[in-house]
Amino acid sequence: MCSLPWTLDRLLLVTMSVWTLVGQIVVFFIMQHPKNNEGLSRIQFQTFPESRRLEMKEAARRMFYTGYDNYMKYAFPKDELDPLHCIGRGPDVEDPSNININDILGNYSLTLVDSLDMLAILGNSSEFRRAVQLVVDRVSFDVNSTVQVFEVNIRLLGALLSAHLLLTDPLKPFGDLEPNGYDDDLLYMAHDLAGRLLPAFENTTTGIPHPRVNLRYGIPADTANETCLAGAGTLLLEFGLLSRLLGDPVFEDSARRAAIALWKRRDKDTGLLGNVINIQTGQWSGKLSGLGAGMDSFYEYLLKAFILFGFEEDLQMFNQAYQGISQHMKKGAACQSGPWSPDSVPLYVNVDMSSGITYNSWIDSLSASFPALQVLKGDVAEAVCSHALHYTIWRRYGALPERFNWKMKTPDIHFYPLRPELVESTYLLYRATRNPFYLHVGSEILASLEKHAKARCGYATLHNVIDKTQEDRMESFFLSETCKYLYLLFDKENYLNQHESDFVFTTEGHPIRVAKRWRVKRWEDVDQRPTPLKRFYGHTKRASHHSRERWTTNATASEVASCFSLYLGVVVLTIPSSVTVSWIAIVQEVLVTIRWTFPQANRSSCRTSRY
Question: Which of 250, 348, 352, 526 has the most beta carbons within 10 angstroms of its beta carbon?
């Protein structure tokens, strides 16, 4: 049982404060943007008609299928769709140094693989089965492609594991998804792919992996010895899950050694970590510490690894990291009630990892995922404020520039590649508060994408958020995350929303059911420890696929129903926004308790680092 050290009255006060804060933010946007609010009043922001919700749900569905159908028509089996010229795109073989393309694209039908679970979420079981069969029959990872370990892990490995688990789920949450003759084919493909990533962990004195591998030949001769924090520290979910499915610890052991090696190299005074590290010396060559590109998903996976696997050390590392972030990166006024303005919300800035001194005057669009992580942690009031800052930027440009200079109040890098971070945070804040304001935010984002990103054969990257010129690229995460979070925001009947405490999203938005079988004892405590997997390169079914029955658990399924679920249930109450309370101390007291229970708002998919 989950004991509650606070009263319902105190929870209601917290609820009032969050709703009051959201109401003040709404008023600010209306007052500051009279030409953009289309006549919306504060009262209208506090409601969202059911007919409008259904309309937005259908619009999000159409957006996904516009991108997906055009990819299948014009681009498959290549990795991505070029939506302006209606052709497919693969790796840049003429320029191997073009890592903006070659880190991600590898001739493995990336967009199709990354979109599998979205087909299930939409309830399209027939197309899901067809897509799975296409992947099994036509996708191979035995390719001469040098790719980034991080990108392949989150986009491909995570997608394969999520799709496999959805179609083999005995509860069949999205209907009968299993193709005829399916024999764990996606799992074997995941095993094959992960085995091709393992060479990244060889010939490194620290245990921190090389950033890139060739899927056929291993580590390139000219490989770099530097990697980013998130690149090396965003492997725990996918590698840990694969180890449990196979009964082989080699994958999780590798990912966990890397995460611990990074953590041990945090600054002894500030507790902060840098953004770039030498994998041989263990020295930080980049000492910028922040929440954006190259850093964000490291923190995300510490918390999500605890949720999925139950290791207390992961939670302890996350809490210490969160404390350091709040102490050193958080600048400006505290999140508070009262008259709202941009100056009354916190700004999380980039700082020097050793001194905590502000490093530069920009934030990047990937940091828009931090409010989602704050919701997952239980710090809902703080998430409301940090989300408002990013939404303010979106509202100004109709998109999020890749970098925004908060001192000059102008973009530093102008493009927007259809990233999902703000949508993800909007979705989680709506699930946590049920405040209709976030439905309005989602509908505005959807309308902006339709207006500015719609192209001849899909949706295109915005080259410049100011003049809205387009680039000929539609990255796979637009379908796997941006469209997914928009759809789930408006589909309240969806199984994932009806059972939101039972799932955790990977950083690429792939849902994984939180299950008793994942919360196992440490590998060294398991009897008959499996023999470590030998590296292999063939796509064949292997004898190292151990039965799942070998695992035992040290956690009960009832832990999933945590105190945080009760808190979210209370938050959905409709509290008049005119109520004023002195609430900061109460929020802190309640959330201190919440974050030490099993954190069951485990539906965050905080976007990860692209650099």
Answer: 250
Question: What 8-state DSSP symbol labels residue 521?
Answer: P
Is the distance from CB of 403 to CB of 610 less than 8 angstroms? no
Q: Which strand (E) or helix (H) includes residue 334? A: none
pTM exceeding 0.85: no
Considering Cα of 286, then 290, then 293, then 297, what sign does the dihedral take? positive
Q: Rg for the chain (alpha carbons), in Å?
A: 23
Please give the positions annotated as active site: 151, 296, 402, 421
Angle at 25 between CA 19 and CA 27, to 5 degrees: 105
d(CA 433, CA 380): 8
pLDDT tens figures, 32-74: 554 444 444 566 678 999 999 999 999 999 999 999 999 999 9
In angstroms, the CA 380 to CA 389 distance is 15
DSSP 294-306: TTHHHHHHHHHHH
- Please report the DSSP string for 176-236 in residue order: --PPTT--SHHHHHHHHHHHHHGGGGTT-SSSPPPSEEETTTBS-TT--SEEEHHHHHS-H
Q: Residue 239 contacts by C-beta under 8 Å, 6 or more apart in sequence?
A: 153, 157, 194, 251, 252, 254, 255
Residues of the chain with pLDDT under 50: 1-12, 30, 34-40, 522, 526-611
Q: How far apart are CA 545 and CA 372, in angstroms?
A: 35
β-bridge partners, 523: none
What angle do the packed helices 421-433 and 380-397 form, to 10 degrees?
A: 140
Which residues face 362 on adjacent strands? 405
CB 290 within 8 A of CB 325: no
Q: What span, in angstroms and rounded, lies between the C-alpha atoms of 514 and 602?
A: 9
571's CB contacts (< 8 A; 6+ apart) are: 14, 15, 18, 380, 432, 433, 434
| Exposure class string for 54-89: b at 16+ Cβ within 10 A, else e | eebbebbbebbbbbbebbbebbbbbbbbbbbebebb
Dihedral angle over CA of 291, 309, 477, 63, nearest 10: -120
Tokens of 438: 């976030």
